[in-house]
Amino acid sequence: MSLSSFFQPRSIALVGATDRAGSVGRAIWDNLRCFSGPVFPVNAKRAEVGGVKAYPNVAALPEVPELVLIVTPASTVPQLVEEAGVAGVKAVVVISAGFKETGPEGARLEAEVQAAAKRHGVRLIGPNCLGLMNPHAGMNATFASSMAQPGRVAFLSQSGALCTAILDWSHDQHVGFSAFVSTGAMADVGWGDLIRHFGDDPNTSSIVIYMESVGDDAAAFLAAARAVAAQKPIVVIKVGRTAEASRVAASHTGAMTGSDAVLDAALRQSGVLRVDTIEELFDMAEVLAKQPLPAGRRLGIVTNAGGPGALATDALVLGQGELAELSAQTMSELNALLPASWSHHNPVDVLGDADAARFVQALRLVAKDAAVDGVLAILTPQAMTHPTSMAQEVARIAGEIVKPLLASWMGAQSVQEGRGILNAAGVPTYDYPDEAALAFVRMREHRLRLIWLSETLSAHAEDDGEALPLVGDMIDSVLKSGRTLMTEQEAKQLLQVAGIPIVDTRAAYDEEEAIAAAEALGYPVVVKLLSSTITHKSDCGGVQLNLLNAAAVQQAWRLIYNNVTHLHGLAAFEGVTVQRMITQKGIELILGASTDAQFGPVLLIGAGGTLVEVLQDRALALPPLNHALARRWVGQTRIAKVLQGVRGQPAVDLPALDDVLVKFARLVQHERRIVELDINPLLATPEGIVALDARVVVRA
Q1: How far apart are CA 603 and CA 253, in angstroms?
Q2: Are residues 188 and 42 in the same domain?
Q3: Which of 682, 663, 624, 625 is closest to 498 using CA atoms?
Q4: Residues 561 and 673 placed together within one structural domain of the fold
Q5: Helix (H, G, I), strand (E, B) or coil at 475
Q6: End-of-domain residue from the set 581, 608, 632
Q7: How many domains does the chain divide into?
Q8: pLDDT for 522-545, tens place per residue?
Q9: What CATH number does residue 381 fall under?
Q10: What is the chain's alpha carbon radius of gyration, rounded to the nearest angstrom?
Q11: Is 247 domain-assigned?
Q12: Residue 206, burial from CB neighbour count under 10 angstroms (0-12, 13-18, 19+)
């Protein structure tokens, strides 16, 4: 069902409308008096509310209202939703509190509300919310003290209290909204529904979200974001970044994938821009709606004072942007235009006595340079400066500049008029130049996220949805044996079936078998513990490397046996595995997968080996992958530069690595019984990629 009944209803009923001063029912009733359509007060105890005839229930209304608002106590809400559904109402906002946020009894009431709504095909926003506004329709269905100004931004928030604070702030900052929505507990209508609605809304240019949780349907949220983000910017601020992970996992991967890091990866692949502050939330919504995205990270700065230019430069570089290197032609043209004492580099300091003509011509020259991806104009109000006329001239040429153009008119009263002129011309203004430089960095980040989105959509389109039947058979066999942890040999066989190269590994259950396996493989060899209960073999002396002969293999067997049985008992030792020692030089990586409670399978790659937790070099992604997405994912790690070759060392086989990552993602995407999977190390060499060790945990 469309959500238009929430935002463009023909008629509204308020259940719990009252004249009682200071009540929620009174505040909402007063706000609704400006609505152009019929508004019906529903109150069984009053004949009228505010001089308007009141009705005892929804069934008694003279017509079926398109939208019903409920503000009565929580205990009454299930029955009221039931009555609304029976009457034919399709949209209900439950503003009342007292549901799952209060404990088990509240959760039971919320479940009853959900059941009643589902029974009758009612869509429901809330409970425990502030309500919603459509400023373009003059509808204020909230208990906020004022109405939002009309604008192009849809604001969605899980916090009603924050809504009221943002509303006050927006009036001071002249920020307008296409809609203002307090989502509450999201018992029914969630992020996905709202994103899709405002994606189709002609009054909305961008969507900003204050998020406390993804909600119960993370898949719907991501699908909606992927469908909308390329057409309209979606900007999110998510609180709770430092919360502990929801569970403690035994694997390296599980232990290093907290929910916030997973959300970061999910947002990145869905084209959603994540910011850190409320101010950034609205700044980015504005700038992304007004300005084109930069093709690269190189910023040109034109200023009439050196200090602000330096401030912007620091913020730019620290934010992973670059100061553009101006071409020889641009430098020559600037030399001809500017006084001899100009800065002679970017930032271009046109000096404090610059008039509007000098400032704007320098801006034009910098903007047309092919090495510049965006331009920042900085003005400080000096004695010779006329901020208003400067702004008028910049606004006049703004349409000629096809790259992002940002401005920082520094100061207070003297620059206010100039800021207004620039904003009206579609040039976002900032109080300080470092804020403007960071906005440019965020714009570049948004462009990159749209590339991630495009590749993610391609990966989904290319995914054939077919599982790997042999993998399923192997997992069945492990589960039938009463185990959930695969042995190393089983884990490697699973990888091999999935198309991932492994080092030949053989199981040995006594010393003689270990020596025979080593002789067959050829020295040097590695001997490792074979156990279905011990997670990390190296922690208990269960890995012996570079064994050169039979005596060394026999000694390794006995050492591992003694170490393991002493620490963990005889049952933990089931034998050893023997594999050839890989002697060619390569880069050790960790490639892992774990299961997130909200997002499902999550992939991890980074620097591997025994120092994996110490190095903490990792990047996350969600399956499926294609080769382009795999390469971009690896590029998020610090080890990526080493993989490309450093200090005379050749690059590893990157196409082969891409192929392994795509196959690995397919494995965990289509076999959801794999709970955790570690390949550590995954050895990357110029000759190819090979898994040297693996650990797999499965579930029924």
Answers
A1: 8
A2: yes
A3: 663
A4: no
A5: helix
A6: 581
A7: 4
A8: 999 999 998 888 877 888 888 999
A9: 3.40.50.261
A10: 31
A11: no
A12: buried
Identify the bridge partners of residue 590 per DSSP, sorted by sequence position: 606
Residue 57 pLDDT exceeds 70: yes
Give the DSSP H/E element, type plus range, for residue 441.
Answer: helix 433-462
Q: What are phi and psi of 136, to 5 degrees?
A: -70, -25
Q: pTM for this one? A: 0.88
CB within 8 Å of 482: residues ≥ 6 apart = none
Give, for 446, the enclosing helix (H) or strand (E): helix 433-462
Same domain? 28 vs 157: yes
Q: How far out from the chain centre does Cα 637 lie?
A: 17
Residue-level pLDDT at 277: 87
CATH number, domain with residue 174? 3.40.50.720
What the block records as the tokens of 350 is 């046109």
Is 629 found in the same domain as 565?
no
- Say how far apart CA 9 and CA 16 lie, in whole Å: 19
Residue with tokens 């020692």: 581
H helix or E strand, kind and range, residue 591: strand 587-596
Residue with tokens 């050196």: 306
Contacts of residue 578, defined as CB under 8 A and 6 or more positions apart, other chains included, come to: 505, 506, 508, 514, 517, 518, 521, 525, 526, 527, 553
Taking CA atoms, 223 is separated from 182, 594, 670, in Å, by 21, 21, 18
- DSSP assignments along 209-275, one per residue: EEES---S-HHHHHHHHHHHTTTS-EEEEES-TTPPPSS--SSHHHHH--HHHHHHHHHHHTT-EE-
Do 16 and 127 belong to one domain?
yes
123 belongs to a structural domain: yes
* Token pair belonging to 287: 């700038």
Facing residues of 684 across strands? 587, 689
Q: Does residue 667 surpass a pLDDT of 80?
A: yes
Give the pLDDT confidence of 404-417 residue by residue, as tens digits.
Answer: 999 999 988 888 89
Q: Which domain holds residue 652?
A: 587-698
Mean local confidence (pLDDT), 375-403: 91
One domain, residues 84 and 106: yes
Is 548 inside a domain boundary? yes
- CATH code of 568's domain: 3.30.1490.20
One-character DSSP codes across 512-576: HHHHHHHHHH-SSEEEEE--SS-S-GGGGT-EEEEE-SHHHHHHHHHHHHHHHHHHH-GGG---E
Q: Percentage of the chain surpassing pLDDT 70?
A: 97
As a whole number of angstroms, the longest Cα–Cα distance in the chain is: 100
The string of pLDDT tens digits covering residues 128-153 is: 999 999 999 999 999 998 899 999 99
Residues 657 and 519 in one domain: no
In sequence order, the 6+-apart residues with CB closer than 8 A to the CB of 105 are none
Which of the listed residues 552, 581, 610 is the one where a domain comes to its end?
Answer: 581
- 491: nearest Cα among 478, 480, 510, 482: 478
Q: What is the CATH number of the domain that holds 613?
A: 3.30.470.20
- What does pLDDT average to over the chain? 91
Whether 97 and 144 share a structural domain: yes
* Size (the chain), residues: 700
Q: Which two tokens stand for residue 51?
A: 């001089």
pLDDT at 242: 53
Reduced to 3 states (helix: H, G, I; strand: E, B; else coil), residue 97 is coil
| 211 is a domain residue | no
